[in-house]
Amino acid sequence: MNNKKIEIIWGIALLLVGVILILNLSGITNIDVFFKGWWTLFIIVPSIIGIIKEEDKAGSFVSLTVGVLLLLCSRGILSYKLFWQLLLPITLIIIGFSLIFKKKITDKVVTNKENDHLTLFSGQKVTVDKDDFKGTTLTAIFGAIDCDLRNIKIKNDIVINSTAIFGGIDIIVPDDIKVVIKSTSIFGGSENKKVNKKEDSKYTIYVNCNCVFGGVEIK
What we know:
Elements: H1 3-25, H2 41-53, H3 58-74, H4 80-101, E1 117-120, E2 123-127, E3 136-141, E4 144-148, E5 158-165, E6 168-172, E7 178-186, E8 189-192, E9 204-212, E10 215-218
Parallel strand pairs: 1-3, 2-4, 3-5, 4-6, 5-9, 6-10, 7-9, 8-10
């Protein structure tokens, strides 16, 4: 679903609400638009659109769950206390399923890992200078990793797996390499700031990102 279709959906929805409000004021209809918990639709509707539109659906499923639970709470079906008790386990279940069944971009790509890096409640600066770099794994948990790959040389497409949980990872790549990312993000996100120039890119670095209250940035 492209952005134009999403705009049309929102336009029709707002148009209908406006018409109903006018009909109610004129006495022709008596439709209760502002039902108990109506505000949760601002969470539920974008989440449904995200599930339809986005390739990474985990974050949208979490948002949809939050919206539905809040709607049930506002309708008196669930208590807000139970909402907070259910939120964490349901979120963890969705994240778990997402990580288990996530399709990674590793097909026909060199996946050897070397110099894997983990930081926990700390920061780490990594500078790699290799003539035949074959990929790595970067994990930041309540910490940060700055990984400088500007001086690497690669002879095949490679994969970097990155996981940021309540932390952040910055990856600086060479100018002559193309970057493709695939991300699963829960209350976090990944961003590819690398400008790919097809005429200069002989090989590709594929970056798998798992972000939970954290972020991965490619520069």
